[in-house]
Task: structure prediction
Amino acid sequence: MNFTVEIEQEEDGRWLAEVTELPGVLCYGQSRKEAADRVKALALRRVADELDHGESVPHMANVSSESA
Result:
């Protein structure tokens, strides 16, 4: 599973990072790295929450599991 993180600096100096495949997953940070780290953590929490609640996760359609 790969996500695209877009990062840009706002006029006020803050950095905004967004995961384009997950609408609404965006975070601000005081540095580029801080914004990227925060948005990655939020994306993982969002996907985990969707899985915990049995929701369909279309961005994981190509992930399969095998039984031993």
Notes: The radius of gyration is 14 Å. The mean pLDDT is 85. The longest strand covers residues 5-9. The chain has one domain: 5-55.
